[in-house]
Amino acid sequence: MKVAHLEVLVEEPSTETALRILLPKMLNNTSFEIYHHSCKQELLKHLPVRLRGYVSWIPDDWRIIVLVDRDDDNCQDLKKRLEAMAAKVGLATKSNPKNQHFAVANRLAIKELEAWYFGDWEAVRQAYPKVNANLPSNSKYRSPDAIRGGTWEAFERVMKAAGYFKTGLRKIEAARKVANHMDPNRNTSPSFQVLRETLAEISTEKTSAISILIGSRVFRFKDMRRLLHSVVLFFNPLRVKVTTSPAKRSSDFLDLNR
Fold first, then answer.
1. Minimal CB count within 10 Å: which of 13, 87, 213, 235?
2. What is the pLDDT of residues 99-146, one digit of tens each?
3. Are residues 102 and 135 in contact, defined by beta-carbon separation less than 8 angstroms?
4. What is the pLDDT of residue 5?
5. Buried b / exposed e across 212-244, counting CB within 10 Å, b at 16+?
6. What's the predicted TM-score (pTM) here?
7. Helix axes 151-161, 171-179, angle to 10 degrees
8. How many alpha carbons lie under 13 Å from residue 164 in its C-beta half-sphere?
9. How close are the terminal C-alpha atoms of the chain, in Å?
10. E-strand spans in the chain?
């Protein structure tokens, strides 16, 4: 049984806009929903409550991705903070799975969404033809996740120099236009590549199959979303025996975003 659905928690509306266009390019038939917040602080403030809510109902074949910009935070400290929030409510993470199973994947966008634009400059050129075609060869922009002075500010300066967004970068508009032209396989942003690899793994992951033993008959189910609540409400009074058979899955990626 494959992962059926993905819940994605992000900081800002512009990230949601981009991902609604990008995720279908990276997921097979896995459905998804995206929830944005007004800022990073709001996401981190409400994350423990939201994760606690998932514990009570999330099906076995659903996954959660928390996508947070690092900004000026220490990568390891921020990752540990996210991992601790999940562990506190009992949700296994990709970094710390239980019996080779995880519910939450915490991912850090090393800078900001705009770093992904610098990682696929061809997409930016298609959306905004007047931008400098040779910008990726400039040492300041060669490493999308290591651009100094603020990634969105750098993107805004480049766009203004080309005659766009003279009154300021309109993030949602830019996200929609650039994401429509992005090719996930050519993006050179390391943080985007880690997200892409995580999504590829999730979309092909085999989840546990669940068997329900009633008397001498065994009933196996694949659609966990439809089954989970009915098992609790209907079968528990019959004192049925529920067993799980874990499926094989590939090993974790060995990096900070693991």
1. 213
2. 657 788 777 655 689 999 999 999 999 999 999 999 999 999 999 998
3. no
4. 92
5. beeeeeeeebeebeebbeeeeeebeeeeeeeee
6. 0.75
7. 80
8. 20
9. 23
10. 5-9, 31-35, 62-69, 104-109, 209-214, 217-221, 241-245
Q: Is the pLDDT of residue 251 over 60?
A: no
User: Do 105 and 203 contact (CB within 8 A), yes or no?
Assistant: no
Amino acid type, 183? D
Based on its alpha-carbon atoms, the radius of gyration of the chain, rounded to whole angstroms, reads: 21
Residue 132's φ and ψ, nearest 5 degrees, are: -65, 115
Neighbour count for residue 4 (Cβ, 10 Å)? 19
H or E segment to which residue 41 belongs: helix 40-55
Q: Which residues contact 163 (CB under 8 A, 6 or more apart)?
A: 130
Residue 234, amino acid = F
170: its two tokens: 């309109």
Question: How many residues belong to the chain?
Answer: 258
* Residue 95: both structure tokens together: 């970094």
Q: Nearest 5 degrees, angle CA 51-CA 227-CA 225?
A: 45
